Amino acid sequence: MKSPIENPNYTSASAGVVVVDSPPPPPPPARRGGLLRVTSEFDSESASFLHKVSCKLLDSVAKLKLSFQNNIKGQVSEPQLRLSSKHLSLLYDLEDRNALINACFDVGPSIQVSASHDLKANQGHLSLLANLPPHPGYALQLSTPLPSSSSSSSSLALALPKATFRFPIGEVSLEEQEQVEEEEEEREEQEAPVFVKNNNNLLSVSGNVKAQFLNGLCTAHYKDQDLKLRYSYKDDEFSFIPTLSLPSNALSFAFKRRLTPSHKFSYWYNCDSNYWSAVYKRTYGKDFKFKAGYDSEVRLGWASLWVGDEGGKAKTAPMKMKVQFMLQVPQDDIKSSVLMFRVKKRWDI
């Protein structure tokens, strides 16, 4: 048992005083209106700036973002204003005076409805996704375009919706496509032949499946009567990825080797065209990366240096700034080599 001095909750019977811990201070009040974030990016290739200003509203219930570009002469272009929330987003183009509306909401625990509408194009899209609760991983999705003008798109208005059935190892889609055939019709009054269009709707099948096979992942993708088979084997140090396309019988393969945790080498070769490419990558911690490679199809060698995570955001980079330098050296004209750079900086106000 602790002594009266060591026990902060000890009650002194003689003094009739109870000594207890003081309650923790109340948390600071939540800030309403959100934080203003400003991001600017400069691309030397296009000699233009891209600016984004965003702010969260109503305790992060909604987000307001303004984006625009300007060149080195100060001319502003592509100004856009976006207001987004969990279930609704509105994108307004100030130059085109056009708005794109997107909405998404749940109907019950297993049905999700999403829709989009382009005011200027008078076209939209409606999608319904139904999960099958007794069978996890199985779902059925129906989607269809919704043109506002039925006179110009009467055939689309009567078209069947695209149906996609999803299952744990892939998905299969059925879509009605309009096929236009031109037939030549002879007329006595005209010397030139006259072509008559016949619209035939056909069902198009597409899909992909994937499964484990021989310590790797085998993927089959079918679309537009083309079948692409891809096998990917990967371990801690070695990756081998052959790809076969049918009926063209086009074969290619990729080879990746991890020399050390910070040194990686990859090689890709196309057996039909004899084109190949190679890339060497070296990382220095999380925020520095060097890459160099060559592509025989475009006969170009290149090297790039990243300061900041290549695939990350500016807020996670040192000083919230990302920098990329790239050198491109054409094999046929070394004198026309180009050094480009890109800088992205974020401020939190």
Automatic annotation (TrEMBL):
GO molecular function, a single term: monoatomic ion channel activity
GO cellular component, one term: chloroplast outer membrane
Listed GO biological process terms: monoatomic cation transport
Upper taxonomic lineage: Eukaryota, Viridiplantae, Streptophyta, Embryophyta, Tracheophyta
Biased composition (Low complexity): 12-21
UniProt cross-references to InterPro entries, sorted A to Z: OEP37-like (IPR038951)
Segments of skewed composition (Polar residues): 1-11
Domain of life per record: Eukaryota
Annotated region (Disordered), positions in chain: 1-32
Name of this chain's protein: Outer envelope pore protein 37, chloroplastic
